[in-house]
Design brief:
This protein has 221 residues and is mainly beta. The protein has 2 domains: 92 residues, Immunoglobulins (Immunoglobulin-like); 96 residues, Immunoglobulin-like, CATH 2.60.40.2550. The protein is built from 1 helix and 17 strands. The strands form 4 sheets. Strands 10, 12, 13, 15, 16 and 17 form a 6-stranded mixed sheet that branches. β6 and β7 form a beta hairpin. The longest helix has 17 residues. The protein is globular. It starts with a helix and ends with a strand. The N terminus and C terminus are likely disordered.
């Protein structure tokens, strides 16, 4: 009996040590936005963690790597991480984190499930730098065909121009000209039937550096 208790204690202690490299102050969670799922997690302690692989599955069994997030250098403060998944084709998406350590070993977080509530007929899968100078290019992955209405408006809501393009199922390329526009912040509106999305971009000068895009769901009146 004592040998069995000792064995169980050793197994428990070993398992605890294998998962002691990361302490989550906020576990992995996801929020459905207009153009994808935003994943968030926080850690209060990390030891020898090199990066996090974000893995995704449509059935909760077979997972694939959809991206990586590097760890922060500061080992003392709470760290907040984000990952934005724009490639949504199924009703259910399962996510988990693969914690990759410096020596090559790894462990996994818990698995979470996101049930899609807002149907997407298209998704932005690629775009050029949002700190654009003359043109802004983006690639849409359309689930169904239809007439896309896209427009460029100022950040205060003034319409600059409006165009239409027929989308075919699969990848579709769109290019917006910023050639004669003054420097500043603009919104690219995308509308297909009842679905509306937008991207925030910036007309840049030659001396400005690239920034990060943001995307949101357009609020309807």
């Amino acid at each position: 009996m004592k040998k069995l208790q000792l064995l169980l204690l050793v197994i428990f202690a070993t398992a605890w040590q294998l998962n002691a490299e990361v302490v989550y102050s906020a576990p992995l969670q996801a929020k459905e936005l207009g153009m994808g799922n935003l994943l968030n997690w926080k850690t209060s302690f990390e030891e020898d963690v090199e990066h996090y692989d974000v893995e995704k599955s449509t059935d909760g069994v077979d997972f694939e790597n959809i991206g990586s997030v590097e760890t922060n250098d500061d080992m003392n403060d709470e760290k907040a991480y984000r990952f934005f998944d724009t490639k949504l084709g199924s009703q259910k998406s399962y996510y988990r984190l693969k914690v990759v350590e410096a020596d090559g070993t790894s462990s996994y977080s818990q698995t979470i499930l996101v049930n899609k509530e807002n149907p997407n007929q298209f998704a932005v899968v690629a775009y050029s730098s949002v700190m654009a100078k003359t043109t802004f290019d983006l690639t849409l992955d359309a689930i169904t065909e239809g007439q896309l209405e896209y427009a460029l408006v100022s950040y205060t809501g003034e319409l600059i121009f409006e165009e239409f393009q027929f989308l075919y199922p699969g990848l579709n390329e769109i290019q917006l000209s910023l050639q004669d526009l003054p420097e500043g912040t603009y919104k690219v509106k995308l509308k297909l039937d009842a679905e509306e999305e937008f991207l925030v971009i910036q007309k840049a000068s030659d001396g400005q550096k690239s920034n990060v895009a943001s995307s949101q769901k357009i609020k309807k009146n």
